[in-house]
Amino acid sequence: MVEPKVKIRSVRKCFGSVEVLKGISLDVPEGGVVCVVGPSGSGKSTLLRCVNRLETIDSGRIWVDGDLIGYAEQGDRIHHLRPAQLCRQRQDIGMVFQRFHLFPHRTALENVMEGPVVVKGVARGQARKRALELLDRVDLADRADHYPAQLSGGQQQRVAIARSLAMDPKLMLFDEPTSALDPELVQEVLAVMRDLAASGMTMMVVTHEMGFAREVGDNLIFIDGGVIVEQGHPRDVLANPRHERFRAFLGQVL
Amino acid sequence: MTKTPQTADVADLPIDAVRPPRPGRWIAAVVAAFALVWLAYTIIVNENLHWDVIAEYLMDGRVLGGLWVTIQLTVLSMVIGLALGILAAVMQLSGSPVLRGASALYTWFFRGTPLLVQLIFWFNIGLVFPSFGIGVPFDGPKLIEWQANELITPFTAALLGLAINEGAYMAEIVRAGIRSVDPGQREAAEALGMSHRQVLRRVVLPQAMRVIIPPTGNQFISMLKTTSMVSVIAGAELLTVSQRIYLGNFEVIAMLIVASIWYIVLTTIASVGQHFIEKRFERGHHALQVRVRRNLRPFSRGNA
């Protein structure tokens, strides 16, 4: 059996006394696109943030490409990774945020170059060439010298995707990438993500875009109250939702 | 009866409206202008001010020497103070309670005691610690040892006092700057795989600078004048040398004016510099910045 790209087992996470993830298990195969949906506060974003260790987990295990995230197992004890090892793991996992979080003091081009130059030590000339290619891929070659404040939300999000791709990630995490966008800008970002999925990238997408999930997703996960309530192929589960809570949720978002 | 213009005509009509009269403003302007002229007249004709003496001493070698010491003290204590401030601010925001406590103790103590007292204390540190050395701690053998009396000159005492005191204030300024940066920026940088140090240096500090620079400019300008406190330990800066000269020639007011003229020259130059540095760190924060940045090419490091 082929090892899945992302393997999540029995993950629990508490914020204070509130348990937001109550034992989540999930596989994402290589090249798979998993769409995670659920009401706000259901824990879907937290799950994504645990995968690249922006949040620690309280129990369970997460593996990406066979590497245990955040910890090392030595004998029968488990150790926290050292900060340098954690950075190494994060390099291979791209993340796109709801509110873009581009570096406002750098141009679009400099934003895309930042990771390779600073983290991987790639020569500036080479990083620049690759960054221009990536900006071209998200259709923003003509905006390379613009600062984030001069770009629309959709353009900023596409630069943010290019910035993540510049690190050549094995996995891309999307945390509600279109939720902060004006409706007419949503499609340009989804188009880039669609291309990315078609190119074989493994993706975990927290989204409210059911159309995108139906069209691009291989697996749809509905999380509510910190547990996976329903999952399956998007076309099947969207056509025949079995659980009452999922039906109620779909009734609100569709 | 005048014909009311149609909409099409109005589009071409320039607004050339008559402003309403503002008598209050005119009267206030006349009063202010009169007061200024009168003040200038009394100063110029006042024979007690000895303008010839002021002119004579403005470029005096001793005064210029004092001016140079003032500049050195200001720049060095601001540089050291900024470094101490960044260190204390980073400690304050760290996860370790010991580091946080040490930083809090530092700002608490040095903001809580008067600078004047600190300066006199540093000058007399030899009374507490007669010698300084490098060696085994807790009274172990020393490799090298200095006598406090040789090490602590008025200049080093002044630098210690000014820099350490400044660091306590800069710590608060830097901390406010770091906290002003959106936490999402840190997360985005961490998600790229940056280390803590890279996140701080490449992402957080450059953005914090926008908030840190204006108050730091004020601190710098303030420091130019604060150095005059060093005159209590004979720091050989501008005020000390002016005092030395008037103790000899009894031109108290003239020498104070000489010193004041130089202080104003220095603070004016610093204010202009502050303006340009602030522009430089506004990068990316408003739509105009591309043009601003082009105008400031000499200030920007070459971005390949």
TrEMBL record, chain A:
It comes from the Bacteria. It catalyses: a polar amino acid(out) + ATP + H2O = a polar amino acid(in) + ADP + phosphate + H(+). GO terms for molecular function: ATP binding; ATP hydrolysis activity; ATPase-coupled polar amino acid-transporter activity. Residues 6-250 form the ABC transporter domain. Keywords: ATP-binding, Nucleotide-binding, Transport. InterPro entries: AAA+_ATPase, ABC_ATPase_HisP-typ, ABC_transporter-like_ATP-bd, ABC_transporter-like_CS, MetN_ABC_transporter-like, P-loop_NTPase. Its EC number is 7.4.2.1. Belongs to the ABC transporter superfamily. This is ABC-type polar-amino-acid transporter. It comes from Streptosporangium canum.
UniProtKB/TrEMBL annotation, chain B:
It is a multi-pass membrane protein. One of its GO terms (cellular component) is ATP-binding cassette (ABC) transporter complex. Residues 67-274 form the ABC transmembrane type-1 domain. One of its GO terms (molecular function) is transmembrane transporter activity. One of its GO terms (biological process) is amino acid transport. Its main location: membrane. The keyword Protein biosynthesis does not apply. InterPro entries: AA_ABC_transptr_permease_3TM (IPR010065), ArtM/GltK/GlnP/TcyL/YhdX-like (IPR043429), MetI-like (IPR000515), MetI-like_sf (IPR035906). The keyword Transmembrane helix applies. Gene3D superfamilies: MetI-like. It is found in: Cell membrane. It comes from the Bacteria. CDD domains: TM_PBP2. The chain crosses the membrane at residues 26-45, 65-91, 112-132, 152-171, 252-273. Keywords: Amino-acid transport, Cell membrane, Membrane, Transmembrane, Transmembrane helix, Transport. Belongs to the binding-protein-dependent transport system permease family. This is Polar amino acid transport system permease protein. It comes from Streptosporangium canum.
